[in-house]
Queue: 2 jobs
Job 1
Amino acid sequence: MNAPTGSIASYNFAYLDEQTKRMIRRAILKAIAIPGYQVPFASREMPMPYGWGTGGVQVTAAIIGPDDVLKVIDQGADDTTNAVSIRAFFQKVANVAVTTRTDEATIIQTRHRIPEQPLRAGQTLVYQVPIPEPLRFLEPRETETRLMHALEEYGLMHVKLYEDIATHGRIATTYAYPVKVEGRYVMDPSPTPKFDNPKMHMSPALQLFGAGREKRIYALPPFTQVESLDFDDHPFTVQTFDKPCALCGAEGVYLDEVILDDCGGHMFVCSDTDHCESRQGDGYHGQQEETFR
Amino acid sequence: MTALAVSNLAKSFTMHLRGGIRLPVIENVSFTLEASECAVLAGPSGVGKSSILKMLYGNYAVDAGSIRIAHQGATIDLACASPREILAVRRDTLGYVSQFLRVVPRVAALDVVAEPLTARGTPNDEAGDRAAALLARLNLPERLWHLPPATFSGGEQQRVNIARGFITDHPVLLLDEPTASLDAANRAVVIDMIAEKKRQGVAMLGIFHDTDVRDAVADRLIDVTEFAPRQAA
Amino acid sequence: MDKPLLRVTHLSKSYGPRIGCADVSFDLWPGEVLAVVGESGSGKTTMLNAVSTRLEPTSGTVSYRMRDGAWRDVFAMSEAERRFLMRTDWGFVHQNPADGLRMTVSAGANVGERLMAVGDRHYGNIRASAIDWLGRVEIAEDRIDDQPRAFSGGMRQRLQIARNLVTRPRLIFMDEPTGGLDVSVQARLLDLLRGLVSDMGLAAIVVTHDLAVARLLSHRMMVMKDGRVIEHGLTDRVLDDPRAPYTQLLVSSILQV
């Protein structure tokens, strides 16, 4: 595909050359065929440092087309550095339309959140993944963890949860909470809060995970069973919040704490900025808004 | 009823560390042992009495001959039995009371005595009661029962050993100077216990240097000097 | 009880022209403890590793009678089956506890890992089992959440044993289980092992260079030299009436105290 008019002439569409995109697509197809399985791929150097979403960017670059509408979020927000720069990157190298609206986007690249608004069929969620191997912290040998995945030896995952309960009286893992996919592979959902784990289950959208430094891609095809690991007597639960969002009054959403001053003033607001703004646009108000008015 | 039949048993040691010299110990050992009798191996020190007991118990290998023992309705030749068979015979048929107790660290005297019973499936409580009764009979002070015998005197250790050997109902018992370090009162207890075993039909083969004890328990003597090896050229 | 549990036939392992162990054959019966003695380099650990499938033998077979009574060639099993066998029906106690423990997770989780690996998903039950097993190996309940890094050598070794026995295996391999421990600590461990082996009817293969350990723990003994079994028999028979020149040397070299 030729470089589109209006983009930087010397770069191929979406930055990566066609051979590389084809290689990544093959990895993605394999990942979709084996839900939860980490497929190695020849991760490229990208014009941004590792840890800034190079895996997600390569996945997005491999699947994006001229007609796609791209949304990029970082911890739920469209307006933070990582989100802004990746959005600008694809505007420049692929000349695609961008949006902050979850319902308008065809591809949503995310760092550490799943939008509050349920995704629909046809949308693709691309996760940026720092460490794809859920067994890493208990078994550092990659040769051994691969074998454990191959042989479905996942007792170690529960050892970690056991340690949580023994130390804290409950499962204290709150993000990157391990899940089992289609009753087979244990998968790291990337460092999303465990609040978002249930959203992965039977989602109509395609979910792709890219780890650039670790050179792994994995996927959840639409309508895949995703089960959070737990104990019978310590079942999986999501975080709950005492108050609704201070700005839009939403309940049952994931909230971030915002410090207001240096006297201990703070408020809890939606981590998903688009969701919050949409609700405010629809006339919903939280307590903080009322105070400001 | 013949409990044990020994025929043409021979034993020698080959000392590889001393240039491979061969020391013949005993040969053509033949005798039988009947139920309800106590036969005593007689002869001076060094003639091979202990070696015979050790061969019968499977503790020494045998160069030639056979040791037939009635074990659970069958006859087993201990001279060529597998280790497993020997262990089974030791567990159920053939008991051994040696001069010296092999001490196991940390195991209390009472448990040392009860072990042969528990090894055969007797419940711990019952085995413990019977062990206590035997130790009491042998006048071992009760304060020692729950201590490991490692620090006991020779006589105390020997009484633990005797209790351990007599606690089961093995039909054949080998007695290797069980009274060697005992005082007169305890020797008398052991003589009583041997007589009791006899009444119960147990066949016993023993070595007793103490002539009083020997005279009290022996139904007949087996002269071991007859089995001394002919000096080969 | 009337059938062997493990059958080793003509097992050899060579490293190029060098012999690790050669032509080792034996049967092991349920509840039986076999000691393998010999000096360093005699091939006893190589033999143990080959029998326990931690090492691929050059030739020979190892057959195991599974819980359902069926005989299986352990090297013909799939890797998944073999690993499952190793963490359920078998145990392996390493000389260095750090090789057999997860040093950075708590004692309780170390003991519970095998249970979780076979699908136990009830935290309370797993913890209760861990407490029970720590008690059996004489580790106080209040140490359950400590990491083995904070344990003494003897405690670590006892923890390793508990970790292996929690699934009630029928066969356990031990490589110098008392090596590197103080004499008094050794005695405690030996006594503990003796009790556990007889209470659970465990079969065991114990590699040791310590003849006293062999005498105390084992029913049967194998003496190895230069990779070959040179003498094999009832433990007290081998120790009290050694036949092979090397065994005589070995037995006569023991220091009496």
Note: The mean pLDDT of chain A is 92.
Job 2
Amino acid sequence: MAPTYNIAMVSDFFFPQPGGVESHIYQLSSKLRDRGHKVIIITHAYKGRTGVRYLTNGLKVYHVPFFVLYRSASFPTVFSFFPVFRNIVLRERIDIVHGHASLSSLCHEAILHARTMGLRTVYTDHSLFGFADAASIFANKLLKFSLSDVDHVICVSHTCKENTVLRASLDPLMVSVIPNAVVAENFKPLDPSELSSDAFSRRHPPPVRPPGPHDMITIVVISRLFYNKGTDLLTAAIPRILENHPNTRFIIAGDGPKAIDLEQMIEQNVLQDRVEMLGPIRHEEVRDVMVRGHIYLHPSLTEAFGTVIVEAASCGLYVVCTQVGGIPEVLPSHMTVFAKPEENDLVAATGRAIAALRANKVRTELFHEQVKSMYSWTDVAMRTERVYNGISGAISEAEFYGYDAANGAGSWSATRGRSGVQSFALIDRLKRYYGCGIWAGKLFCLCVIVDYLIFLALELLFPRDKIDVCPDWPKKARKSTGAVAGFSRN
Amino acid sequence: MAPPSGLHSSSHPSDFETPFPKLVRSSTVPAGLRSTRTDPSHLAPEDAYAPLSPHRLRAFDATDNVSGAESRTGRLRRKGPSRSGSRRRKRFQKLLWVKQSYPDNYTDQATFLENLQRNPRVRPYDFWPLVADSTVIVQHVCSVILFVVCFVGIFQERVSPVAVVSWSSGATFAGWLLWDFWATQDARGAAGDEDARARIMRGGHAYREFRPPLRQDSSGLDPSSALNASTDHYPQPRHPLSGHADSTGFLAPGDAHSRSVSSFNSITSQTSMANIPNSLATPAPTTTTTTAHPDATDGHDQTTPSDHPQTRLFSSRFYVRLSTIKSAILIYFTLLGLSPILKSLTRSTSSDSIWAMSFWLLAINIFFFDYSGGSRSGVAAAAAATTTTPGKPMPVASLSTNAALMASTVLASRLPSTGQVFSLTLFSIQVFGLFPVFRQCARRRSWRYHVILTVLLVLGAGAGVGMILGDPHHHHGWPWKRGLVGMVVGCLIAAVAMGGCSWWLIGLQKYKNEIYGPWDPARPIIISRRHWEDE
């Protein structure tokens, strides 16, 4: 019988803010709930959204009051989150704390406090960082701090895993790669039955599939218009693509500081009738924009996973994307045309894609079913569940890490290894933090000791038995086991 | 179904029926660990000569983290012998869309971190070029020392302030004459050069391909065509034309005497459009200068190009000289008027604070000084070739000059008489405002001048320090002996510092550890940006 856990997802980024991390947390949580686990989400208070909220299917969200610093990342205070966090954890009888997103200080604090309280921790990294500039060095040091004593790390792509392993000096074996997924039902290609005779459809005739040699080909771009999303490349490439291919047009959705460049380019080259700029659109509208096109162009300069290209492929679009970050791992090559992040190559790749579509060489109508079989949140939830099993000892160390623990642990026996089931003893934790650097190591140890003292003080001031345990949301019975067994921490 | 080329060596999932290699601990320890080098994550001295052979790179790839935790590398393997020995498995692929028979935390020996690059752009230093480059710093430090020595001399009343300022003014004047001579020479050469180019333009439209498509034809008497012709040369400044750089190098912000816009305008308009590229560095827009002098633009298109550049050149030089003299007189009298105020500026502050403050200000001057000087154009050109962004001037360069002038002001305010205050402030303007410009110019002009100037400065600073350190109450003539000892010691210190620091820097290169990989934001290569950015 598979154990079930009480899991707290912690991140600064959650609904009502839109974004990739936010939807990842939501989808993963709801799928884990379906598998019989109890999941709560802890985030900071958003405007008009404070206290405790329930989402669909009884997903409980705690909005902790926190000072928001920048783009809804909360102000990094090392200890101030602890009292509230401890209260929530005890009320909800949490076993596993799962933090998301490296820029979320709430997540890092939660991991530190959770280890002090003797809980298992998992961290999911969604982004890539460089090593060159001062800001990254600082961010990487902080990541090293919080990941020194984490039980397991999940990355969304292999590139992301390599990056995180380097940034936080982790054992690669304690980093799993579990990709994002898409809700394929929300990204279906255009169905003939959807075509009604309303004004919208008449104004935007559906794309001809497959396009003949003289049919109009529509290229869709949906991205925030920032430098690192490659908007400069796009601005340079659009006039040349349109010049080379007469029967093509662009639809660009998204907003950002680079939008003005695009508009200038359109005016300069008099392309108003061939480039349509929609401005910012909501995530629900993405699919409706995508199905108006044949090709999805993704000129990003860095990307950990690139969910949007999976969504585009799921809508039946042929994807042209730059070969950066984790993008090459995401889609099979019959769905994509890769370009180097160079203007010439992007133009050439788009040309290849247009030619392939016109020659009817690409079976885009099959893409949806293929993507559906590649990525699903249920699969993600199952793989995450295996991580939970591994760190809590439900599956053996040898099975989880795949080596003979007695042989492999060798020099790691003091703390049972970084990748083993980690010891909660304070001295063992201090050993892990001490290795972070000559000065940083000592500073981190100091932080951990203070954290432990705060924990002891909290135990005295707010004793555990005085904290109410809140009743669980009535669960659906699991299909296979029927009954849900409570998991007890060992 | 082929994965993208360049990331994966093999291309088809169906032909991965090769047995998974059996991993034992000894086989997974990277080769670098077994070699004689103690720490594979650090560069060894030999890397300076043979930067990162492929063999070494492979060894690095296997190490799991930056800090070189060697003990961990042994555990990269997984799926122990008991499993993989008998079963034939598909080879692991770095793909997310394939359902693989490996657990999620599987780390593949062959492909993990295979695209990691360490120090890909490192350029090993050579000893002698490094020493040669360090002369720029030595020059500046020596001139700061000279200034301090002169202050101490004036303060201790060993040297007459009038003598100091008249000597330095004489030297400044001589330097200005020399610079003016060089500038005239260069401008003449440039004008001839430009002339030839103009002829080419009128004949074959040789530069037409650089032009954005919207431009109109530059044929004949239309004054706007001349404007076009001059703006057409915008793409050129990225090739540093040495002659031009000299003539307008003095117009850089921070240069006190020729900063006036009028002189700048006269240069740009009169010495023809050759200078316009250089005006990129200066704030004045070229379009206004060209339209403000319609005679110059007209003359360019209509007259025969044989004699005009010369006469225009002459008049332009004349205007520059006139405005230089004008601003020099202006500064002179301003200082004269301000000196009594400066004298009493810090009367309520104790001397200790003044010494400490001026020390820090001079330190700021030395650390933030723009040493790149003339060589920046080369760097900028190299940068422009890769990133298409023109090199920007250092933003902190003016901080350096301002700090030095403030230091001289607070130092001058310690002096007892107005004459002394005036002398020291004027001297500081010459040392910190004008002298760096001259040094830069001399360096660009000829390496020999640069070396001579360096030696003179080192000798002067050494002698000055030697004389100042003597007992201030012995006025038995000039303390030549101390001066000579100071020169020798100064030369020794300079040599040791230059050589030692260069050697040290080369030695430190082995700690260089830059990491690049697919996670870094790609640098987009955009060619056609110029078409709509330069307009």
Note: Chain B is about 55% helix and 0% strand.
